[in-house]
Amino acid sequence: MVRIRFRREGSRHQPFYRLVVTERESPRDGRFLEIIGHYNPRTQPATMDVKEERLIHWLKAGALPSESALKVLKTCGAWARWERVQAGEAVDAVLASRPAPTTVDPRTKREAAEAGKGKKKAKKAEVAAEAPAEA
Q1: Who has the most CB within 10 Å: 10, 55, 83, 127?
Q2: Number of domains in the chain
């Protein structure tokens, strides 16, 4: 059975996900048949990009999305367009009605730490500031 699900990418504490078509038995980060999109929950707002032509192809072939993939497909509107195709609308007409992609600020939700402002350096700076005051 073919599934559409997420494959985790990225470093520790900085995940992003590829939307892949894979066999149900293969592991989460294992072999896949095709990458059909990506999802980055760390940007504000979350970035979702789906190759809808390929998504519709695989859904017609019988692929089923996982729960988390279905949630993202509904959020980005791809699932509503798939339901329109199932109702009998032409694929070209449905794909032409897609909204234009929006540009997203590439910064992540977490702000980067200031250079040289680690806890140890801040503690040393505090101690150094107090030492001349006491002397």
Answers
A1: 55
A2: 1
Q: Is residue 8 part of a domain?
A: yes
DSSP state of 51: -
Of 45, 61, 50, 60, give the one whose Cα is nearest residue 6.
Answer: 50
This prediction has a pTM of 0.68
CATH of the domain at 6: 3.30.1320.10
Question: Is position 123 within any domain?
Answer: no
Let me know if 120 is exposed, middle or buried by CB neighbors in 10 A (0-12, 13-18, 19+): exposed
Burial code (b: 16+ CB inside 10 Å, e: under 16) for 68-88 equals ebeebbeebebbebbeebeee
For the chain, residues with pLDDT lower than 50 are none
Task: Say what the pLDDT of residue 96 is.
Answer: 80
Task: Give me the domain span that covers residue 36.
Answer: 2-107
Q: Residue 86 domain-assigned?
A: yes
Please report how the helices 67-76 and 78-87 are oriented relative to each other, as an axis angle in degrees rounded to 10: 90
